[in-house]
Amino acid sequence: MRAVRIGNGQGFWGDSVDAPVELLRGGEIDYIGMDYLAEVTLSIMMRQKLKDPAAGYATDFIGFVRRVLPELVERNVKVICNAGGLNPQGARARVFEVARELGVGGFKVGVVEGDDILPRLPELIAAGHELANMETGEPIAPIVDRVTSANAYLGARGVVEALGAGALIVLCGRITDTALALAPMAHEFGWDFEDWDRLSAGTIAGHVIECGAQCTGGNFSRWWEVPDLWNVGYPVVEAHEDGTFVVTKHEGTGGMVTVDTVSEQLLYEMGDPRQYVGPDCVADFTSVRLAQEGLDRVRVSGIRGGPRTPFLKVSASYLEGYKATGQITVSGPRAVEKARLAAETVWKRLERAGVRFAPEQTTVELLGTGACLPGVLAPPADPPEVVLRLGVRDGDRDKLARFGMEIAPLVTAGPPGVTGFAGGRPKPQEVVAYWPALLAREEVEGRVTVSVEEA
Predict the structure, then answer these.
(1) For the chain, which domains are there?
(2) Environment class of residue 349 by beta-carbon count within 10 Å: exposed (0-12), middle (13-18) or buried (19+)?
(3) Is the pTM of this model over 0.85?
């Protein structure tokens, strides 16, 4: 069977800027997917866009385009990404600017949008859509004035439409991570959007590679078995028309692709494995069959799925007060006792100044004593040093600013052995909280436009 090779070169905004370049140059590839949007990334983009209406997209993507655009056009390697964020039209304009600078033309860029429902929240609430928090059941109306972003997860349809119109690059806002692989599979093989088994296969293929190197040895529990992690190869799916696919990576790269590395990624962010709900279908992860086909090759088959639900998931974020954190290193004999004394000193000095925080508004962590995994490993009785990290959270910025003034004095007015304080006084930062909700899918309409750069 004909195989379509789909790689993923970006697991989040902040992942390796070299990975997608190496995917392009390291071997045969037909599509490169790039995922930039974590749940709160769009709120960061919103703040950027409020300062500059031309902003609101992942600027790293423009750097990638500048490095490889001539090669993409020459080899006809297509790129699908959600780097468009809150301003995919602005991102496309910037791509075309780079193309003109490089003297590259004759290619099309598609934009998929319609996911951003923030301006429509009052209208939707008035129409009876509660957008209830999926964890608490609370309606969104009481906090709507503090919402900074609200985006519905679109599926693969819009991307398939853009590819069908000849787009070399498809820039999206909030689409599902899995659509980055499902869309090229559906496009190349002409899958019907009610062929639930094949759509589920594409969804699971996208899930396996959505986090980049996390399925090729990155973040692997038996990390000591992974060869040349410094040179880890990012994943490539060899997809077939019947929905089966092979997970692999380019030859000559580090990392590894085994049933175990793929299995760990399959379990990532997993709820009910029988009902992995996406906008295109509901995939049954219990139907997945994995087999080691050779070195760094895992065949995935047997996938089944069911119809899409009548809802789309909405990822919203809102402001929930402020936070501040500071830390010091405490070294020498009895380091744990000294760190606890340092923490107590901060709280008592704040009380003397009239600043009080409820216990649930504070955190005290002694890194080096098992704070990250309490109860899992027995800490040393008297470690040579620990890191004391203090944090507070409140709606009053002034209280947090006062907290920030009490860390540095520990260097000379605290117990001995205090070091590692740098970066100035901790400053209050906005707390951006997550609000997951469901919205009837007929309330969201994806829009696709495809433009050509003639250069």
Answers:
(1) 4-115+153-309 (no CATH), 316-435 (3.30.70)
(2) middle
(3) yes
